[in-house]
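Tokens for chain A. Residues wanted.
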């Protein structure tokens, strides 16, 4: 789909609908690692940060949609000097408006227990490790399974798929943008995030938008990884990077967040001006 399709109003919208659309702020939700923060590319990250601040200065809203935990997300945002209006973290397992109530879609306790028991039977501690993401009341919203290599990771994926089916969503990653110090120390080179079957970035954002009456037509999203595909399929979306499965899930592909924001701000202004001119001609006639 070409870029212009984002702003094609010949789809049954009447003038009132279009006025409401243009008078609302627009909402940009970004994946963090590899999309907003480009590890190893400080200049590219700096351009993205500056563009996000311009987006907010224009009266629009910014949120992150990430697989990070709350603590890791806060640390990354503080390093970038950004203050998001909304956060969807733990791959949709937790979501909130800044300064407001914290909502969660936790894993079932029996699923967590089965994951732990199965892993204990299969591997030794130096071959795989579990990292838990917990909500405000101690509920487990995401489990990261850290493994020695991608082949081993897919072995666990197949087992958990047969055990849990639709009760969980799993996002295996072998081509890592970065590794934590713990992963480096224990030679763990792949990981898989496991969340509730009711979670996922797309569901977390959909519920967030319903809670705070955010118009779906005013939401744009961008991501670069396998855990972004559901998100990209359900909203007006941009794929960042060159992964085929991610590009295939999105409405458009673009090189960077900064380029995307520049384009969006320019097009939204063009649409506003075009609508005002059209309205003026209508009333003059």
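Reply:
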């Amino acid at each position: 789909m070409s870029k212009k399709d984002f702003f094609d109003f010949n789809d049954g919208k009447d003038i009132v609908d279009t006025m409401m659309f243009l008078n609302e702020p627009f909402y940009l939700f970004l994946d963090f690692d590899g999309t907003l923060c480009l590890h190893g590319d400080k200049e590219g990250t700096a351009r993205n940060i500056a563009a996000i601040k311009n987006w907010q200065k224009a009266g629009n809203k910014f949120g992150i949609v990430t697989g990070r935990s709350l603590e890791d997300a806060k640390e990354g945002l503080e390093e970038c000097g950004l203050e998001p209006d909304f956060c969807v973290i733990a791959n949709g397992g937790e979501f909130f408006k800044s300064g407001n109530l914290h909502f969660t879609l936790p894993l079932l306790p029996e699923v967590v227990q089965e994951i732990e028991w199965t892993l204990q039977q299969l591997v030794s501690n130096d071959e795989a490790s579990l990292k838990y993401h917990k909500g405000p009341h101690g509920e487990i919203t995401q489990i990261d399974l850290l493994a020695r290599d991608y082949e081993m990771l897919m072995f666990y994926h197949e087992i958990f798929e047969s055990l849990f089916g639709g009760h969980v969503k799993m996002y295996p990653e072998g081509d890592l943008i970065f590794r934590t110090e713990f992963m480096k120390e224990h030679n763990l080179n792949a990981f898989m995030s496991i969340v509730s079957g009711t979670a996922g970035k797309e569901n977390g954002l959909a519920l967030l938008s319903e809670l705070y009456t955010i118009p779906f037509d005013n939401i744009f999203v961008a991501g670069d990884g396998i855990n972004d595909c559901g998100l990209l399929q359900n909203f007006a979306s941009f794929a960042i990077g060159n992964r085929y499965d991610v590009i295939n899930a999105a409405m458009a592909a673009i090189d960077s967040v900064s380029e995307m924001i520049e384009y969006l701000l320019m097009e939204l202004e063009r649409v506003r001006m075009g609508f005002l001119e059209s309205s003026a001609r209508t009333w003059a006639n």
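Residues 257-284 form the longest helix (28 residues). The chain has two domains: 12-105+200-284, 109-196.
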